[in-house]
Write a structure and sequence with these properties.
This protein is an alpha+beta fold and 87 residues long. 29% of the residues lie in helices and 17% in strands. It has one domain: Beta-lactamase (3-Layer(aba) Sandwich). A hairpin with a 3-residue loop joins strand 2 and strand 3.
């Protein structure tokens, strides 16, 4: 999802937002912060690339405010199976 889920904005999305996501032409964005949670956003106004204008803004804001960029050094994502291995 990170490399192609946001149409022609995918590369810039990976650089600026860093959250794997898939957008749809209806105005929805589904994003996943690996090992943590998923995000669902719907706002139908689209930009020139076919992505939700407000959805992109929300994801950028969340990524910056909470350090969710998967390429940043402080990101502590983990895989789903880790909690079962520890027990």
């Amino acid at each position: 999802m990170l490399s192609c889920g946001m149409y022609d904005y995918a590369g810039e999305w990976a650089f600026r937002v860093g959250i794997p996501a898939k957008s749809g032409v209806s105005g929805g964005i589904v994003a996943v912060v690996p090992g943590k949670f998923g995000i669902g956003i719907y706002s139908p106004r689209l930009d020139a690339r076919g992505n939700s204008v407000r959805g992109v803004q929300v994801c950028q804001s969340l990524s910056q405010q909470f350090g969710l960029h998967v390429f940043e050094s402080g990101f502590t994502g983990r895989t789903l199976g880790e909690e079962f291995v520890r027990k």
